[in-house]
């Protein structure tokens, strides 16, 4: 921005491109940085353990999702994450990362290295539409339960949910990306073969 500029309220709705925390004995400071919009960048600094930031603090550790790269664990917890490459026949630049241990989802843009934080609720709404039969098992739209059951969703489920989510909320340009068809495993193949064989015997009788 420029000197004397007034804050542009539209920056409140821009994607979060960096999120991290500084953990202290008596405070937990969370810092989030939004994507630049019309030469302005919004930075939010919040104490998750209180209304104010103490003057005298003792830092224990700090971490940020901004530093994450493919193959690494969650910066917040050190636990494993699930990586799903967003499907495209021409581009291979997006990886959706789901971290059950800290209940976070982010989108890694390979070319820029930016990790966009993805709001959980709207994405999970789209994910549950992909597999309605899991809805009850995952306790409906309960984020904790869905994170716990995330392995019940295939890469295709997650990919297609993200494509539909992005069309609605436009966090990044997904014009070159598309939905995936579910890959059938060996068991499905054998079932189809048996079904066809059974059908032929029935017709012959």
From TrEMBL:
Domain of life: Bacteria
The protein's name: Uncharacterized protein
Organism placement in taxonomy: Bacteria, Pseudomonadati, Candidatus Kryptoniota, Candidatus Kryptobacter
Organism field: Kryptobacter tengchongensis
């Amino acid at each position: 921005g420029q000197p004397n500029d007034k804050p542009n309220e539209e920056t409140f709705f821009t994607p979060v491109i960096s999120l991290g925390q500084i953990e202290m004995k008596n405070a937990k400071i969370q810092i989030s940085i939004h994507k630049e919009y019309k030469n302005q960048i919004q930075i939010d600094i919040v104490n998750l353990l209180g209304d104010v930031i103490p003057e005298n603090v003792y830092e224990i550790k700090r971490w940020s999702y901004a530093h994450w790269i493919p193959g690494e664990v969650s910066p917040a917890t050190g636990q494993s994450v699930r990586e799903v490459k967003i499907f495209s026949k021409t581009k291979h630049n997006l990886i959706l990362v789901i971290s059950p241990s800290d209940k976070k989802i982010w989108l890694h843009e390979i070319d820029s290295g930016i990790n966009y934080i993805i709001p959980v609720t709207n994405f999970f709404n789209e994910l549950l539409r992909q597999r309605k039969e899991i809805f009850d098992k995952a306790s409906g739209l309960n984020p904790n339960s869905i994170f716990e059951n995330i392995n019940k969703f295939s890469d295709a489920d997650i990919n297609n949910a993200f494509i539909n989510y992005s069309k609605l909320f436009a966090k990044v340009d997904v014009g070159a990306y598309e939905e995936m068809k579910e890959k059938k495993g060996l068991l499905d193949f054998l079932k189809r073969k048996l079904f066809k064989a059974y059908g032929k015997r029935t017709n012959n009788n």
